[in-house]
Every structure is written in C-alpha cells, then in structure tokens.
C-alpha cells in the first residue's frame, strides 16, 4: 500500500465497501469520520486556548493583588497624615477665635477723689475761701489729688454687684386638685373603711344583744349564718340594709332588724380625705341552746 493514500478519501471508502451494503452503519460512520475529527481538533484547540488565557489572567490578578496592599497602606498613611494636618489647622483657627476677654474698665466717675485746687494770685480783700496754713495741712489727712480708697472701692463693688443682676422668683408647683366624691355614691371599697366604736367585736356583740330568736325557727330547729349588708353613711349612721346571703326568711328578717336597731354611730369611711357612703358586711350566727 502506498504511503500517499488518503484513508479518509471517498475513493478509498468506496474501494473498501465495494460489493458491500453501503446502507450499513459502518459506511455512514466512515463518511462522517472526517467531520468528527475536525470538530475534535477544534474543541482541543479551544480548550488549550482557554487554559492559556486563564493562566495569563490568574498571573495578572495575583501580581496585582500582591502589589495592592502596599499601595493601599501607603494610601492610608497619606490620608491619615492629611487628616491630622487638617485637624491641627482647625484647632489653631478655633484657638484664634477665642480671644481672652478684655478686663472691664471702671469708669473714673465712680472714684471718690478730692478736687485739686487751682492756685490763683488775688488781692487779700477779694479772698473768700480760708487758706490753710502748713500746720493745718499737716493735721488734715486728706492729700491733694489723693483717692478716698474706702469710699471709691465701695462704689466700685456696688456698681459691679448691681450689674447684670437677674432676680429669679421660685415658682412653687400647685398641689394636685382632689375632686370631692359624689355625695350620693355608695362605695364598695375605700381608702379608709368605716369603724364601729370598740371595733368588730363590739359590733357583733351589740347585734347579738338586739337579736330575738324567731319562735317558728326555734320550734323547727332552724340554725345557721345570715350575712347582712348595710350602708354606713358619710355621717356614720346606718342606711339601706339587705341580706347578702340568707338562711331562713324568719332569720333573715330578724338579722336585718337587729342591725337597724344599732344605736351607736360608725366613724365614716373616707375617700381622698372626704367622708363617703360605704357598704359594710357582717355575718350573724343563729344558734339554739340545746
């Protein structure tokens, strides 16, 4: 076989499949082999090109990344130095703005000084003021042109003390207004409950003194406890009376009557410092002597 024979040519393919079924799959595959080989070569070339490009890109990025921190550090140092210089300049400007206040000049008219007498040559008969001799001047402790420091300083201090004086009046807060409760309202609970003279024990004792055991209930042997509710008015007397928990009609009526028969007055209950009407509850026990 010659070396210059092209195995992928149509002539070679027809020679190989001469007298054979060309519709068979091998003939089709041999016909398309050239295209497959070309595609494979293109794919390989593309892959190699991509790998080469990636290598170049990676090397470039790594080199840039290695060089970047130094640049950033230098940039940061430059920025910090610039900021420090700007802050120093701002502080110097602020210090220049705040100048020391000039001392207050005290007016000369506040000083109490002795008037300097002018000397004039006049005739003796025209002199009206008495001229002191040297001995009198020595006895006088006031020097010509001297300053009366005591009085002058006092005036200066008074002038300074009374300058820019602001009088602030203390405003006292008004006490909270306490509303007076409604006179007709009956409270179930108050700040200070009503108190019977002698306390709860004395109240039960006085109620039992007023009790008369109902004959019908006694004959039937009815015993038990009746809870009576009544209103202690704002003047300490007893108002409405009702049975909160009953036992027997006769016992209930007798318990109400015994409460109404109380003669002593309560110390009334209070709300916000005012006497008010309050519901009061008391249990009354009926027990037969056996």
Question: Which features would summarize this protein structure in a list?
Answer:
five-stranded mixed β-sheet, 7 helices, 290 residues, alpha+beta
Strands, helices and their partners?
Blueprint lengths: L9 H7 L8 H73 L36 H6 L9 H13 L24 E2 L12 H11 L4 H5 L4 E9 L5 E8 L3 H12 L8 E3 L2 E13 L4
Parallel strand pairs: 1-5
Antiparallel strand pairs: 2-3, 2-5, 4-5
Question: Could you characterize what this model shows?
Answer:
- The structure is a single chain.
- Helix 5 crosses helix 7.
- Helix content is 44%, strand content 12%.
- The relative contact order is 0.08.
- The chain starts with 9 loop residues before the first helix and ends with a strand.
- Strands 1, 2, 3, 4 and 5 form a five-stranded mixed β-sheet that branches.
- It has 290 residues and is of the alpha+beta class.
Distance between the termini: 149 Å
Shape call: flat
List segments where confidence is low: pLDDT < 50 over at least 5 consecutive residues.
Answer: 143-149
Helix/strand class: alpha+beta
> What is the share of helical residues?
40-55%
Q: What Rg is obtained from the alpha carbons, in whole angstroms?
A: 62 Å
The main β sheet shows up as: 5 strands, mixed
Number of strands: 5
Number of helices: 7
* Chain-averaged pLDDT: 76
β-sheet strand percentage? 5-15%
One letter per element, helices H and strands E, the order comes to HHHHEHHEEHEE
Gist?
This protein is of the alpha+beta class and 290 residues long.
